[in-house]
From TrEMBL:
It comes from Podargus strigoides (Tawny frogmouth). The lineage of its organism: Eukaryota, Metazoa, Chordata, Craniata, Vertebrata. It catalyses: uridine(38/39/40) in tRNA = pseudouridine(38/39/40) in tRNA. Its EC number is 5.4.99.12. Pfam families: PseudoU_synth_1 (PF01416). GO terms for biological process: tRNA pseudouridine synthesis. The active site is at residue 22. It comes from the Eukaryota. This is tRNA pseudouridine synthase. Residues 124-241 form the Pseudouridine synthase I TruA alpha/beta domain. Keywords: Isomerase, tRNA processing.
């Protein structure tokens, strides 16, 4: 918003963001909309001008504008979204925090253990797909009383991945994994709880059927306290319209 005020609008600019995230969560991309009114007689900015001008004023910040589009007045970055995709990154093979590759610090989670039972995690993930009451998989906050716990999970994928510059330390035999979740909307900390529960299955602390039981309980207090994944491994990957 500060960068946009340098465009000299005649009415203060307010950004409407597609998604909010917890502190410590990353975004590979996000989207927002705003209205800009220029002084009478001045032409409207085109998309290229907006990208260039905003990025010029964002130089010191860890954020860049990638694309800009002119949209209808009825468009809303949050409420017009068809789906949101999150990716959660794991690294296996680190027995303590100090063993996480320095370029991966705060960009992944290193659960205890050398490997995960991924087939069991994939079996467990099937219970999360579809429309359910996800009360057990949300943390409580000020919006909880006003928010429906019903959500539809469109996609859950668990795939091997690679770390940043990992080909330079192949001798360490670290395993990187990515868990991808897609839904129109998620509840507060829902993705982090789903990841934590699936990792607990992969570690043998829970069975795949426990995921179904947690869904059926519909009580956030029943969620295992040890199964909350930290914010550092979570990335908002895409918002689709």
């Amino acid at each position: 918003q500060k960068a946009a005020q340098n465009l000299k609008p005649i009415v203060p600019i307010k950004f409407h963001i597609s998604s909010r995230t917890d502190s410590g969560v990353h975004a590979l991309c996000n989207s927002a909309h705003f209205d800009i009114q220029r002084a009478p007689g001045k032409p409207a900015f085109n998309e290229t001008q907006l990208i260039h001008c905003l990025n010029y004023h964002l130089k010191p910040e860890p954020i860049r504008i990638l694309k800009a589009y002119r949209v209808a007045d009825s468009f809303h970055a949050r409420f017009s979204a068809l789906s949101r995709t999150y990716v959660y990154r794991l690294v296996m093979g680190c027995s303590r925090y100090s063993e996480i590759p320095v370029f991966e610090r705060d960009l992944c989670w290193a659960p205890v253990g050398s490997s995960l039972n991924v087939p069991a995690m994939q079996d467990a993930a099937q219970f999360l797909l579809g429309t359910h009451d996800f009360s057990t998989f949300r943390s409580l906050n000020s919006e909880t009383p006003f928010q429906s716990p019903i959500r539809t999970i469109l996609q859950v994928d668990i795939q091997p991945s690679s770390g940043f510059l990992s080909h330079h330390y192949e001798h360490r035999r670290l395993e990187f994994w990515e868990l991808k979740f897609r839904s129109r909307a998620f509840l507060y900390r829902q993705v982090r709880r789903m990841v934590g529960a699936l990792v607990a299955v992969g570690q043998g602390k829970l069975t795949p059927h426990h995921i179904k039981e947690l869904l059926e309980i519909k009580d956030s207090r029943a969620f295992p306290s040890y199964a909350m994944a930290p914010a550092s491994g979570l990335f908002l990957k895409a918002v689709e319209y």
